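agent: user wants the full assembly modeled, not chains individually. Plan: 1) parse entity lines 2) check alphabet per entity 3) run joint structure prediction 4) return tokens. Steps 1-2 passed, two entities, 669 residues total. Proceeding.
--- entities ---
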Amino acid sequence: MDLFYITSFVLSIISASTPLLLAASGELITERSGTLNLGVEGMMLIGAIAGFATAHDTGSALLGVLAAAAAGIAISLIFAVLTQTFLANQIAAGLALTIFGHGFAALLGAGYVGIAAPTLPKLAFPLLSKIPFFGPVLFNQNILIYFSFAILACISWFLRKTHAGLILRAVGDNHDAAHAMGYAVLKIRYGAIAFGGGMAGIAGAYLSLYYSPLWSQDLASGRGWIALALVVFSAWRPYWLLAGAYLFGGITYLSLYLQGLGVLIPAPLISALPYFGTIIVLVLISRDRRRTRLNQPACLGKSFHAVV
Amino acid sequence: MTTIKRRGFTALLGGAALAAPGIMRASRADAPLKAGFVYLGPVGDFGWTYQHDVGRKLAAKALGAAVTTSYVENVPEAPECQAVFQNLASSGHKIIFGTSFGYMNYMLKVAAQFPDIKFEHCTGYKQAPNLSTYDIRFYQGRFVQGVIAGKLSKAGVAGYIGSVPVPEVVQGMNAFLLGMQSVNPKAQLKFIMIDSWYDPGKEGDATKALIDQGCDIITQHTDSPAPLQTAAGRGIKAFGESTDMISFAPKFQLSASVNDWGGYYIKRMKAVLTKDWASGDTWGGFAEGMLTMAPFRNMPDSVAALAKSTVSDIKSGKNKIFTGPLTDQNGKVFLAAGQTMDDGTLSGLQTLIAGIEGKLT
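--- prediction returned ---
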């Protein structure tokens, strides 16, 4: 296996892992604020069609990404209104969002089936992109791949080092206390939900404008659910999330690769692996209550109703 | 609505007048024939279901006011599909097409409950007095693709994106390699099963893996244009699936096996209208017009000419594709020289021929 093929192998893993990382980064913030939004798959699909349609109609893939983020935010706000203002059950509302997103995206996309749209360009750094291996891997990538790393670094810094991050975590861990301290719990959660929606929308645009540049009703093919599983798998920590996304993306690609070499790995087993991994992590971190408390935002999934 | 009805009435009246028995039958035939379609995927998949819907629209257009068609999409191969068939049957549909293998046993049950209604099951193998089966000999198109691949592949290794190892896919892989070997006896085939008929991301990834392993021609047995697009992105030529996908890779699609269900749908609906419908099993290919090849593009004229003559040889029955000697992966001859595989064996095929890398299970 020469360097060209190793490079190509690594590039394939990066491109398979990025949509998981993008969507999961957004959901991580949503969940750290104490809200569980199961609608990631639906928001991704809405983002994918909004991005594809905009790119097709305007001829600009970058505008497509912005439209995808906006569409993701817009649809996540439906969830926010239902669960935060009207105190609807978050599990039910999230599932409804996925089902709604799936159908609505199909409706919007009916006229976009079977046609091509502009794809997202790669950003090549002059000279650096010519270095063997490191050039193509690090300095000649799709802009959303750079973005996925940058945003993850920002999220980690935000949660650990900033006052605003501390407030977000406080809202997720004890909304009553945060409220008593004078923080606007609902507004903060609205913001966190919108951020999750925007990121899911961008992940959708990554799919429809770069990864498999086309529109189809099942474009996300369960990646939203894997992203949700990843947030739990990472125990709500940004860098573990990065590791998890690349682990799952890498395993999926590696299994396909090995099959091509004639190594027999049952494909259904590989499809099940992310969920299986998540169950194992869940079991590990819930072995005792102290561990669970260390990791999971204590108010995850609970509605907040201010008693004045 | 009334206009359509009246037009249908006059059209049929004309037909009935020719057929002599008189006005009574004509007035009974007043209402157009209702035909129902049950689809596994969305009509927007641009692959399997899309192509069935093209056939439905074609039939609706060809038969005009004599029929009205309706369809239900995204129907799973699970008990709930039974209710979908029952609904169609009890709402006046006289002929109902189910277009996925997994509907088989449910259709069998519903057909027994509605003996007056004609059922048509695509890709199944169980028939009943009012349940027919129909399918396309997809492997014929695969052989033609293989001939092209054998001529164009410099490495002599092609890549096949498979879904699940059912006989249809096994036939396809074998036929593709047989086609390649007919022009390059040393040709080999690598494959990857992605455990889904539709997952653009995975299909694209499998394509990348096969290209990285030295395949310089790609074909797919999955429904999205992603393998074709990915191959084009890497400068590798490939084939479309089910439908002409040229718009996704204008410079890299060589051809595509195009499923043409319309002719069959027209024939069967007409048979119900004329009361000539009989249960049977149709397995059609080039000769029956159920399978066609998209224009041969992006290849030298000599290769296109060879592909065309291969199509006509298969059409005329001169080339039966699965003829002996055929050797399996372990070097054992499983079809002796001079013999042709019968349809029964072929439709349950689970053996890979020598030259295909990798095992099925």
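agent: reporting back. Chain B has two domains: 2-137+261-284, 139-258+322-357. Confidence is low (pLDDT under 50) at residues 1-28 of chain B.
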